[in-house]
């Protein structure tokens, strides 16, 4: 039975042929027909494009977002025009990378900005060179054939990384076409190097609005604590970072309602609260403000400063509701889990001060520790100021 055809556009012949080629590449059959106009010959008359009625929803979505689907995304590492900060999404092509990317695309839609998908891979030759440089034994120079093998291995790894990105992009394009992902323009970058270094260097170049990273579940992260890329980025990055565990209870921004906010009772809290409000402007949130008193802090001072912060937040963030909780210095992670369970926390927010490599190794930050013990998404906001409310 012949299906009804619907005319979706009328263009010049050249434009119509390009649009036909574009739609048919996406699996939609297109019929062209000249539109006769009085006083015009066939060669100059406009051309109509008709498709099957069942293909109309997909065709409209493709045409409305042709700047996304028509680009050669496999080679789209060029920077945008700089009209706005982008969202950086480091990916390793895992399922949790897709989970993080979905939320990142939602945030990009909310902020009318673009996504940069970044993948970093290690070259075998550099790993071998590092291994040799750390060795205490004297090793002769590699033979020429060994050098050639290393070059071939590097080329294979680089090619595999680009092919994996191509498949990742193809899946995202399909998700956009079916409406699973919002239609947001994105580009890709595939660079060789140590992942955390590549991420931090690229972030310094583009100064992103936000870095969104997927992570494993807490049970798996604890086994991989040393050398975690996400932990290194959290401890060293100068831009807000949003981590999404694979076992997180949320799959979309609209799922966010309950927030646990770690307070320092200093000006850093304002920076972090501003970041929360600006990154999630459409969310209706209840924020539980939690403070970890120091051993020398007097309880009366902590109580007074907490109430001051609570009053400030209620005045300046009227779209949110707030409450206070106190944590214990010696069992922060346990208290955090208890609050998560009792309040149904879906997001942890904390100001995160950059520290030296030495201190990160031997005294990991709260963000670092929570990353490995929590299955809750976390927004880490880098801060630098140290003027405490308790001292006022």
Could you characterize what this model shows?
With 392 residues, this protein is of the alpha/beta class. The chain has three domains: 5-64, Alpha-Beta Plaits (2-Layer Sandwich), CATH 3.30.70; 74-215, HUPs (Rossmann fold), CATH 3.40.50.620; 253-391, HUPs (Rossmann fold), CATH 3.40.50.620. Helix content is 44%, strand content 20%. The chain contains 14 helices and 13 strands. The chain has a ten-stranded mixed β-sheet, with helices on both faces. Strands 1-3-2 form a three-stranded antiparallel β-sheet. Strand 10, helix 11 and strand 11 form a beta-alpha-beta unit. Helix 7 (195-206) runs parallel beside helix 9 (229-236) and helix 9 (229-236) packs antiparallel against helix 14 (366-373). The chain starts with a strand and ends in a 9-residue tail after the last strand. 31% of the residues are buried. Residues 72-83, 128-138, 221-227, 356-363 and 385-392 have low confidence and may be disordered.
CATH class of the largest domain reads Alpha Beta
Spatial sequence of strands, sheet with the most strands: 6-5-4-7-8-13-12-9-10-11
Kindly state the percentage of residues in helix.
40-55%
| H and E order | EHEEHHEHEHHEHEHHEEHEHEHEHHE
CATH architecture descriptor text of the largest domain: 3-Layer(aba) Sandwich
> What is the domain total for the residues?
3
Give the full name of the CATH homologous superfamily of the largest domain. HUPs
End-to-end distance: 81 Å
Shape: globular
The CATH topology annotation of the largest domain reads as Rossmann fold
* Beta-strand segment tally: 13
Query: Mind summarizing the main beta sheet?
Result: 10 strands, mixed
Number of helices: 14
Strand content: 15-25%
- Rg calculated over all Cα atoms: 26 Å
Question: Which structural class fits the helix and strand makeup?
Answer: alpha/beta
Task: Summarize model confidence as the mean pLDDT.
Answer: 79
Are there runs of 5+ residues with pLDDT below 50, and where? 72-83, 128-138, 221-227, 356-363, 385-392
């Amino acid at each position: 039975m012949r299906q009804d055809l619907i005319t979706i556009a009328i263009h010049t012949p050249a434009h119509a042929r390009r649009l036909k080629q574009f739609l048919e590449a996406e699996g939609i059959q297109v019929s062209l027909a000249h539109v006769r106009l009085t006083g015009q010959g066939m060669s100059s008359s406009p051309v109509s494009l008709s498709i099957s009625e069942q293909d109309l929803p997909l065709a409209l979505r493709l045409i409305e977002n042709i700047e996304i689907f028509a680009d050669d995304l496999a080679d789209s590492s060029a920077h945008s025009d700089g009209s706005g900060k982008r969202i950086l999404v480091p990916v390793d092509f895992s399922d949790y990378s897709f989970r993080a990317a979905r939320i990142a695309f939602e945030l990009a839609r909310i902020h009318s900005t673009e996504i940069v998908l970044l993948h970093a891979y290690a070259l075998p030759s550099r790993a071998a060179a590092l291994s040799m440089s750390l060795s205490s034994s004297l090793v002769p120079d590699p033979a020429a054939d060994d050098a050639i093998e290393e070059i071939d291995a590097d080329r294979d790894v680089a090619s595999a990384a680009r092919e994996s990105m191509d498949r990742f992009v193809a899946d995202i394009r399909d998700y956009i076409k079916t409406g699973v992902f919002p239609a947001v323009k994105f580009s890709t970058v595939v660079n060789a190097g140590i992942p955390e270094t590549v991420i931090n260097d690229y972030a310094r170049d583009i100064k992103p609005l936000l870095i969104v990273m997927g992570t494993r579940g807490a049970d798996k992260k604890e086994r991989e604590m040393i050398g975690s890329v996400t932990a290194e980025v959290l401890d060293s990055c100068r831009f807000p970072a949003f981590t999404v565990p694979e076992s997180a209870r949320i799959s979309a921004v609209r799922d966010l309602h309950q927030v646990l906010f770690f307070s320092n009772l200093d000006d850093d809290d304002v920076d972090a609260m501003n970041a929360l409000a600006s990154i999630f402007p459409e969310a209706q949130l209840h924020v539980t403000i939690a403070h970890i008193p120091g051993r020398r802090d007097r309880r009366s001072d902590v109580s007074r400063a907490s109430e001051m912060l609570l009053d400030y937040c209620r005045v300046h963030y009227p779209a949110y509701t707030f409450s206070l909780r106190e944590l214990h210095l010696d069992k922060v992670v346990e208290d955090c889990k208890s609050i998560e369970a009792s309040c149904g926390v879906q997001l942890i927010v904390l100001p995160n001060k950059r520290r030296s490599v030495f201190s990160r190794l031997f005294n990991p930050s709260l963000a670092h520790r929570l990353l490995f013990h929590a299955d809750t998404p976390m927004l880490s906001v880098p801060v630098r100021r140290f003027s405490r409310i308790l001292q006022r």
